[in-house]
């Protein structure tokens, strides 16, 4: 076949309108800094304060690391495309971005389920919490998260690598994601679509279902709390968690459960931004900054920095 194989891709970004590039650059630059420094503050606070070395906060630390990897694998290149004419990315760079993004995607979904299970045990079985959620259990759960995330990433990246890209090489998106890459392939993508569908059902739908079941038991336990103030506080925490989780899972399920031929990239860019940019920014606020123990830990970090 007389075909030229692609060595680099052209990323179109969020918009082709020059008048919007500057505004979008400022917006997403701010989002990235909030997400990065917010999650980094959580990591430092948990590591620095020994009182936070418990399963709940170790899982929060893992979520913060995943969010940093997710946003850092996407936004810097996205900002470069907006600010300069450097809208090309090498084939290897594209595959690297895809690998770390799919890794963080899988890790975050399983982490949400793990964190929901941790809260389920803490609220429904408080007397047995220390025995169930001990250091060994925490290590096992994090190992499961890592294995699933790495497997998910390796499978999808490997399946993309077996495809042939012989032109065009324009990615109508703001990063190298599976759907736009499949639409550029000049070889059949049926196996890729099947594996994306399987991953979406098992990881996204499966984890979301387990998370909702955990919170269902948690809400049932909250209803047995006698004081109105206790119910209000518990419901506030659970509702905010469920909103963030739903904001993450819904667009993921929507994006990956369809065949490549039905994608509308203009619409999907906005949907993708919800779970790649918005949720990592909200996680520190919802899961950590509203927590009194975490607030105390953060204050200790700032107090230590002032002394230096």
Description:
76% of the residues lie in helices and 3% in strands. It has 308 residues and is an all-alpha fold. It has one domain (8-307): Up-down Bundle (Rhopdopsin 7-helix transmembrane proteins), CATH 1.20.1070.10. The chain has a three-stranded mixed beta sheet with strand order 2-1-3. It is globular, with a radius of gyration of 21 Å. The N and C termini lie far apart (66 Å). Keywords: Cell membrane, G-protein coupled receptor, Membrane, Olfaction, Receptor, Sensory transduction, Transducer, Transmembrane, Transmembrane helix. It is found in: Cell membrane. Its main location: membrane.
The SS-based structural class is mainly alpha
Helix content: over 70%
Strand content: under 5%
Low-confidence stretches: none
Number of structural domains: 1
Tell me what the CATH architecture is. Answer: Up-down Bundle
**Widest β-sheet, arrangement of strands:** 2-1-3
SSE inventory with pairings:
Layout lengths: L7 E4 L6 H31 L6 H29 L4 E3 H34 L4 H4 L2 H27 L8 E2 L6 H7 L5 H33 L5 H29 L8 H25 L2 H16 L1
Parallel strand pairs: 1-3
Antiparallel strand pairs: 1-2
Helix pairs in contact: 1-2, 1-9, 1-10, 2-3, 2-9, 3-5, 3-7, 5-7, 7-8, 8-9
Tag the structure with descriptive keywords.
single chain, 308 residues, mainly alpha, Rhopdopsin 7-helix transmembrane proteins, three-stranded mixed sheet, 10 helices, 3 strands, globular, sensory transduction, G protein-coupled receptor activity, olfactory receptor activity, receptor
